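Quick one, T. Sequence first:
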Amino acid sequence: SPPAVDSPSAGSPAWRRARLAMGERWPVWLRGRCGLEPRTLAALGVLLLVAAGFAVHHFWTGRPQAVTVATSNPPAAPTDLPTDVPPDSPAASAGASAGAPSPSAAAPLVVDVAGEVAEPGIYSLPAGSRVADAIEAAGGSAPGTDTDALNRARPLVDGEQILVGAPPSAGPAPPPAPAPAAGGRISINTATSEQLQELPGVGPVLAGNIIGYRESNGAFTTIEQLGEVSGIGDRRLADLRDRVT
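Structure tokens:
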């Protein structure tokens, strides 16, 4: 049978009365089945209250909260110059340059690609492009085309023509040989070796001696100076006197 619970008396302490009152409120069958004393039941009640309080605190602190983000406005750039600044002063120039729009990107290059390419024509290429880019834009060079004469790494110039497959330009023509002096005479100061060999008794060796003397001693000032050239004696000098100048 369940243990008997004494009724609280008027002279009992308050805590004893509360314990007894709580024990009396439990069903008799529960007290009998669990065999719990009123003190144990009171401890369980306190434990439940503590657990409930902890759960409420955890729920309250873990609830989502709105976060306010502080925004700061960047300082406004000065738009007006002081009225007392002269228009040609450095400060006025700096303000004008700050308000001016930034320069646009470099203009494209327009080139004419002609010759042995797949699609000759005029092409617009980005600034900084090179000859190889222009050839590629025209579909590439035709098979078997010799492009050795082209510097494909050269930067393009706006408005130029790229001629693919053209033979390399010939070098500058040699200067024309000096014409013979008036009267059919040959100038010993300007004549070449071939022209000197047209003189009687002058071969390649003697012509070279005349040119060597001219280069070492300067231009001839008189016909008689030919006698100082190795290989020219008095007789040969007499033969050349009327043929040179």
